[in-house]
Here is the input.
Amino acid sequence: MMKKPVWAVFIFAALATSACGAGGRGEAGGTPSKDKPKSKDGKTVVTLSLKNPDPFFQTVEKKFEEKYPDIDLQIQSYKQAGEKWGAGDFEKYVKTTNTALLSGKGADIVELSDLPVDKYVHGKLLANLNEMFDQDKALKKEELNLNILNGMKKKDGGLYTLPTSFYLRTYIGDGDSIKKANVQIDDAKWTWSQFEETAKKVMEKEGGGGKAKRPVFTEDPGVTLQEIIMDRYGELVDPATMKAKFDSPAFTDLLKSIKKMYDEKIMKSETAEGETALFYSAAFLTPQDMVVNPHGQYSNPKLLQKPHAEGAKGGIRIIPADEFAVQAKSSVKAEAWTFLSFLYSKDVQSLQDLKGFSLLKEVNDKKLDEIQKQLKGGTFKLPTGTKANVSDDQFNLYKEFIRKAESFSAFDMKVLSIINEETPAYFSGQKPAEEVAKLIQNRVTTYLNE
Here is the structure.
């Protein structure tokens, strides 16, 4: 197996959006002005910014305007069709977006995927969507995966961004090896230290009889660290105060525990030809992945929730396919909400080009039921051409997994980049953990104060 680069952990974090825009604006804090922007034919204009042109949203725009003919949805893209991204372009894009949000001159609805949402919330630049969501009687909330939206709420209970759809990330273990080791796993509650203890037992049992011990994980230590930080970002950067805590014992202890597992060969950066790890972190980008990924790795895979810090919430991590917010100064908040609500209609959620998992339970269930039917009929095969042995109970577990995923921690790509740049000096033995933590703390603090 090839060694995975550290940046691989970012693969499911889409980049951001534009902040070009238009329209009349109200006062800061969300009080709209009386005058709403109108098109030449008298329709209320609502602007939506995207990072790149997207045929999916062009289809959504057409359907939306057919249903709401009094609204003119105008989509703007930071990059034009066919225009490539070069070195430094994303940094310029973030700066443009920040400036537009601060001035209130951006689009009414802004895609904020991988942008520093907590910074915007802290600066009161985004509308809290809770009230509009709660008062929307047309939205059939019982049909939605509310666990996803609840998971995306901030500590103050505010709902500032909404995804069109989502992906999932969790752990998968070799079920046969876990059973052979006779270990009991309560993955709804296990901490990182409990995971390490359990993994060691499985590893030792697997290596009995003179056989070589299989590693627990095969990832670069930087990737392992980044994934844990993504799960625990709110513990290291307080979203309410925007204060960093990388010089705390919690972070240095995390660095040391990861290095210790690599030093003891419990984890490896790469595996030998034909060797597989006992556990691995899996991203599910589609319902099909819930079958293909685990069964492509193990004959008897065990789906597991992710470990977490002591006292923290663990579970299955939500990865929004995108995130949309309404500007606090938008004068057309009601119309903007009408569009966001429309994203959760069957007209949109059933579109073939919808990325990832649907926010509608029914759509995901139908896709899994179809896969189950194909498996029984012998028409659904793994990439190897073999058939996966998946029980009906396992399909019920897949549906349960989707409905109980609620672990979401918004992170800042710039902060993750700083960590990625500084931590190799520790993992390679060049600097002590405390020195690296102090460097990260200083750099992150400077960035957060900008």
